[in-house]
């Protein structure tokens, strides 16, 4: 605790009460006003009256009159001009203060506060911060300047390694005082020595030590503050909330900072600096681009600032990048770090200068090496100029093309300069709520925009202001979003200001959330408690909720509740601790006493109810707030509406919304978003119309919500046009929503056009367009866009990788998916990413990897279970899928329609008719899932595989939806298996009614006729196809080898190794024939004879792909093949036999499922082929279900390679768990960069 008693009046019992601060506070509302009225009545001048007030309330032994300056005082102009750093606010038309008080004693501050309130004057506090927009000495209302420059004591205490420094001191004076006492300590503050510590510290305070030690406020131990009642407080008496607020929240909103007590930090006796200049011609773009990737993660003792400015060289415009650095260590250590992490700069020993820390301060402010440290005591280190500053934060590296665009814009504008200050190190370790300064982890660097000029005049100023604003606007795509953050100490009125008088929360939040993010609400709470009447106010001061709206008045004996600050603080503390039961008890006690808290306390209590999912308690809070006729402010009602929305109580939210006397854009947007998320799209659209009729203009959040309610393209087009008219089409979230909705309506080209209209890029928009193509199974385009995104300098996040994994699904590119998995490991494993990984491995046919992921998931939801069940079913492990479904029920997870679909699929592909019927008939009663078209499709497939055609027809008539093409095609396929030509003809006609151009119906009907040897009918069908221009899709198989896709089509000779492949295939067929293999010509659907029939089977595309895979990959590697058509029965037999013969694991994916061939067994267990085209029974007349006993001796070799179903399940109940081979990538950190060639 700071010993501030020496600053107070002398303790003379005969002259003053024992507790001066309390006494002064007590007499303020009575004596001060009375005396002022008496003084005013005496017909003195205003100046005399004000001076008498000051004298009355200050220590007479230190006359305040000596440090009070009126406009007619000779020293007034020089005092006022002395600390105006921006000549824009030094013109004759700039509003001037009524008085200036330059306190030399704390009582001068107290008196100024009391008298300004008595005279209804605003008080501006000037303590030497940057104050680029003049807020500390300019006001449109009558005001007084409290100029702190006379309070400049610096006391260094090396026993506890602290410094007590008055707020009027400059950073240079602080550094000078430290250097006089120690060579191995420093303080992390600004690099500009003329900046005052009062404002600098209270806004955060950063400098070139921040990557090792953090900000100035991170080392503040105590402070002395004078509050709005004139009380002098230290940390203990002010409380931790106020102490928190003044350390980064802007002290001038809460009181007057008198002094700080700070902790020094250790520095080595020798540090190293360098300054390197590079132009575009010397590789500046590459250097800055590389700097972004190392600046925040390089050695934390190294701070490299980059100053980028447009210059002229030999009459040509170019860009110069100046890199200034401070390293806490020797030159050799620095060179080692740079050689390892930033070799692109090419730093050499001659550019490095070793010196003491205090000398590095001078070097950084461009003093020549060897300058005396006494220069730090100069308060005006540089001449004043006209200027404007702005700030931004960059959270993703800017791509090289984008940097080039920025350089081009800078050269076009000529004047703006950009300064990049790196973050990382200690800044990433401190929580963003530790102090009000929120810009911690996640920021790569901060940008300061600068423009300065010497010419006077309003037109000139406007021209330069326009230049920097254009530069700021141009940078929008590259900087932080929602909010676009700014640095408090670089005050910028462009981002928003309070209205004159008492600003509302909504007004102040416009700029407040940019400076403070989520800390803004807590600052408002503190302000409301410590300065409820909002005495300390200016254009960007924290608002008081009491002053900015109707106050709650009355006493405990009246009906209206009374506002009690202590009740608010107690309730808030309970809410912050998330102690809901005690908070609700406290609320009940408040009701009984007839008191209430403020709006912030209630909003925190509502958040607490949301955190607990406590609906009943939330309703009680609602009732309490509206009790006794009290009508809360709009923002609190909005919080209640949001609570009901989060609880999915839309009716209650609507009732509350309808009763609101005043609705703002947040109110409307909350309701529109609620209905949009609930898929009540027509209601969301109507609310938008009502919103406009109410005179409220939608913002970007409104549009991004209502866009997702568009069900018709015409509505979407109208909204899109409107968005363009109001100028919101460039907003990230609006553009992202447009892309999402266009893609959901199937308008991928329009979505791509919206994306292409983006000037440069944004990760959110990139993610949207990649997801659009991935969701529409256009994996090629999704991956192409992903590569473009990476080349543009945007890193992948969880959302990106989820889409990339989905793209890998559609292309079945397992190796690419594994590389994406490597990137996933860089993030915290959340449920969505784990589910995406699980889905990718299942759909790429790697059940070992899928099971590995699933078994290690810490949390599983219904999507996890459903994905694994469907994956097992589609890969042929039907019994395992059903067993997993039973385990899911035991775990208490409720199945959804996707889960049931997977179970029915498993039953279908395992031939489990009775089980399938049981699951289908009970899905509504047991799980509340209504059968949908897909569920009927699985049951029809199950019945068709079992040959139950009559039951299929009956089920089609019982469907609760109209049969579609898939339904009739399932029946047609079953007819082919059973050679029911008449029913097949009927099904084909139904298909052609729905789509006369459907090639599948013609092909299936032709195949049925071919199997029945009705070649004339086959010819008729094929003539009809030719006449109508319908072409059969040729069978194609493809395989990925060494990141190259190799495609094979029957009869195609284009593959460079086709001759070698055919020779190898013939050798395999010869060896298999010796083992008893005979090609099954029943699968020849052409009118051929003898060897022609066998040859037409031999060169099927899947056989060619299998042979190429064996030739091109090591034996331990799984051969993975994709086929666009269902694998034929003969190829199925061939794959089983060759897998046994070559001891290979072969996976073939056709449009229906995966087939895993291993040791002469397929995971599908030959269920489909056993119906009609089971290869062994066709060849040898042996029923596989009977087993091996009936097989003749001559076929034993073949049967030994193809065990029956029961044998398969007894020996292969689950594929053995193996360590996935993608772990070899972990150490290498490979990216998803492999080219996919066709």
From TrEMBL:
One GO BP annotation of this record: cannabinoid biosynthetic process
GO CC entries: mitochondrion
Swiss-Prot/TrEMBL PPR repeat ranges: 598-632, 664-698, 762-796, 830-860, 861-895
Chief location: mitochondrion
Location of this chain's protein in the cell: Mitochondrion
InterPro entries in the cross-refs: BBE, DYW_dom, E_motif, FAD-bd_PCMH, FAD-bd_PCMH-like_sf, FAD-bd_PCMH_sub1, FAD-bd_PCMH_sub2, Oxid_FAD_bind_N
Record's keyword terms, sorted: Disulfide bond, FAD, Flavoprotein, Glycoprotein, Mitochondrion, Repeat, Signal, Transit peptide
Pfam (any one): DYW_deaminase
Cited PANTHER family: OS08G0158400 PROTEIN
Name of this protein: FAD-binding PCMH-type domain-containing protein
Organism of this sequence: Flemingia macrophylla
Organism classification: Eukaryota, Viridiplantae, Streptophyta, Embryophyta, Tracheophyta
